[in-house]
Amino acid sequence: MANEKFVSQIADIETDFPQWYTDVVVKTKLVDYGPVKGTMVIRPYGYAIWENIQKEMDARFKAAGVENAYFPLLIPMSFMTKEAEHVEGFAPEVAVVTHAGGAKLEEPLVIRPTSETIIGHMMGKWVESWRDLPLRMNQWCNVMRWEKTTRPFLRTSEFLWQEGHSVYATGEEAEQETLNMLHLYEEFAKNVLCMPVLIGRKTEKEKFAGAVATFGMEAMMHDGKSLQAGTTHYMGQNFAKAFGVQFTGVDGTLKYGYTMSYGVSTRLIGALIMTHGDARGLILPPPVAPIEVVIVPIAQKKEGVLEACNALADRLKKTGVRAKVDDSDNSPGWKFNEWEMKGVPVRIELGPRDIEAGKMTVFRRDTLEKQDSFTLENAEETVKALLSDICENMYERAKTRMQSRIVNASSLEELLSGVDGGNFVRAGWCGERACEDKVKEFAQATARVLDEKNDLPTCVCCGKKAKHTVFFARAY
Ligand code: ZN
Asked: pTM to 2 decimals?
């Protein structure tokens, strides 16, 4: 009975996925709504996930030789207008500060929607000779984009992210770095978020404002819609020219640098929720789960039970596992439901009989399987192996689902029925913007990324010879 009551607090994942998402993010205390429309408060349980994402991602950047820096939140309005496409793309979304210190400002200031301009400006100051290159920096910060419709983690006016910015002497190097970072993101998605993604180049229509080329990684959510989970951009010399990023080459002549940038945000939290979640709530990938193992005492008032639970938690913590004993006054059944909804990967139940037998009962959140044959003695090895198995299973399960829901289409009708059925649709495309627009109008689907494999002969829209094979989907 308790179980039914608990589950009923979350909308049905199959029939009302949007409400399921809202219920889950609020009821598991990941997030709450801020007082200003479109803002979110990331609560401790949600922020701990972000901290784990940061930790894992930051280690990868540092291993790749990228250094962290911090640039100001406020950007002179004049910077935004220096790169024509950039200002056009971001103008509708920027928040502008016009007054400060009780007076009107001479020049309005933009709250950063992204930092290409201010970092371009500083690169222009710092780069003088070929010896200063490459310059590779990253910053962890917040940005602001005034969005009309917002949803926690997916689209909010303020969000947290990292933005990496590099300048190189040659276009080849900058392009290569754009791909390297795309692959770093793909590896991160797989090994840290247990999330399969499609990677590839974006169309002109979908590319970043001011970029020569944008690449993205797209993940399939539970409802078959796509979520853009990270992007990398090759800027060519667009920003270098706008901000005077010049260097003296080995040959003594003055040249413009080539820049690139890349970013992932708190959207990743939305992505992992909608990739892995089920009817009971969250299923968190172990590498980012704030609590990897929750230990629930059975008959916790009995002598020795809590002590045994705490001793087990200490042993697990010593091996680097994030373990917690739930010694609250709630009943074991209530605790089971709570931690299942909150997506903790492993639950260990420990009662007087288990302790006496030197055993523990283990429940895994991904498969909902319960097993009581594990010995307490080998708890560390058992838990480590289990967490790693859960990672693998979560990834494989999501990958199988994604692969089984990619279909080919050779007409707009087929494309429409494909996306209606919650699929990603592969289709040929002639490369014309008009056909891309038609697909959007006809099927409310957009070109997510171009497929590396280009095997479909004709454009899904006009029937002319296809230049690319595209993954179309409805997207968040
Ligand atoms: Zn066409």
From this structure: 0.96
